[in-house]
Amino acid sequence: MAELVVNQDKVTHKILMELIDLCPFNAIEDHSGDLYINSGCKMCRLCVKNGQGVIELKEEENKPQVDKGLWNGITVYVDHFGGEIHPVSFELIGKARELAEVTNHPVQALIMGDDIKELAEELQHYGVDQIHLYEDEKLKDFKVENHTAVFEDYINKVKPSSILVGATTLGRSLAPRVAARFKTGLTADCTILKMKENTDLVQIRPAFGGNIMAQIVTENHRPQFCTARYKVFDAPERGEKFGEIITQNIDSELLNSKINVLNVIKKEKEESISDAEVIVAIGRGVQKEEDLKAVNELADLVGGQVAVTRPLIENGWFNAKKQVGLSGRTVKPKLIFAIGIHGAVQFTAGMENSETIIAINKDENAPIFNCAHIGVVGDLYKVIPELIEKIKGGELNV
Ligand SMILES: Cc1cc2nc3c(=O)[nH]c(=O)nc-3n(C[C@H](O)[C@H](O)[C@H](O)COP(=O)(O)OP(=O)(O)OC[C@H]3O[C@@H](n4cnc5c(N)ncnc54)[C@H](O)[C@@H]3O)c2cc1C
């Protein structure tokens, strides 16, 4: 761990006041002219950058060192259920291929289950170099202890440098357990991933309530683990068959979960905003619940689903599944209307990769216009009826 060292001899009243103002966490205090850092400090290092040498970062001596050359490959954990691969796994394969170009590492897929050869063969069409297949009847149902044991076995045998896991219910349960076994870092819900030439994976995600984009690097441990949500990255097109399937074996004794799955009841597939191709997203600019009638009419006309910002969940108008954003769902439709939405980073983090964003806001300075492809400055109570009229009259084709 790094620590902050305060050079009290360099502290002047002016610098102290500036740093107190600068710290976003109110962690710097004036103790009779001395600078004191309290427990609110989140090590954001703003004070180190701007403190004119008053605060220094002291890196830990004898840091653990890893031989990065021994770790080779970018592995995607393939999430599947009921004979279908979760689409997030394809998206991660697309990202892994991009990252692998920097380091010339192979892209590997890790798939485990029972009677899943066909799924492994399907993966051969997505540009994966190696598909590591674990089949055992004890892997038929997801049992976190068994799946963790297999994952551990795989890492010990193959030694991948980076591992990408979909932030599904299953992935969120599995990835931290495996990361803990290797005493390595895991960054959850990454929205951007970049690769350094030295094989360090730069894991970028909103942090501190979405106020900053944190860049997290696991410099001294391998493997590097991250999860990413569905609809953040692009899946590659299905192509020619490529890559080899490597059958891996694990000592069945290690699959010793005490969980006995009696029955698996498949949930009805629900309509989800994450799958929508067109979305009409609304925010607090819509003032009354009865105004939703016009919003629904617009959504019907454009063949879209209605989605909302968090305040509209909090006021009880919508179910939480309709929320877009950091604490809601990530969406990447072909077209999204953002109507009466300010454009807080916590909202845009969940929709800024949409193909076309049309923002309607009466405030021309609203941040939503920064990520919009088309911006309409106007009152939604005038713009929505006009849009409806024009679509109905055939003047506008959406
Ligand atoms: C940890 C954390 C997580 C969060 N997660 C999320 C999240 O996942 N999703 C989310 O949405 N928020 C989230 N938030 C809340 C977020 O910070 C914002 O408060 C929220 O997104 C604001 O919603 P809004 O844009 O609808 O409302 P407001 O900020 O009130 O904006 C309303 C907008 O409507 C415009 N407007 C008003 N009247 C009209 C009109 N007649 N015509 C046209 N435009 C009009 C205004 O100009 C304004 O820009 C989170 C916050 C925190 C701290």
UniProtKB/TrEMBL annotation:
Database matches in InterPro entries: DHS-like_NAD/FAD-binding_dom, ETF_a/b_N, ETF_a/FixB, ETF_alpha_N, ETF_asu_C, Rossmann-like_a/b/a_fold
Listed GO MF terms: electron transfer activity; flavin adenine dinucleotide binding
Ranges of residues in domain Electron transfer flavoprotein alpha/beta-subunit N-terminal: 74-258
Chain positions recorded as FAD binding sites: R284, T309, R310, Q323, V324, G325, L326, S327, N361
SUPFAM superfamilies registered for this protein in UniProt: Adenine nucleotide alpha hydrolases-like, DHS-like NAD/FAD-binding domain
Cofactor(s) needed: FAD
Alphabetical UniProt keywords: FAD, Flavoprotein
Co-factor remark: Binds 1 FAD per dimer.
GO biological process: fatty acid beta-oxidation using acyl-CoA dehydrogenase
The family this protein is said to belong to: Belongs to the ETF alpha-subunit/FixB family.
Protein name per the record: Electron transfer flavoprotein subunit alpha
Gene: etfB
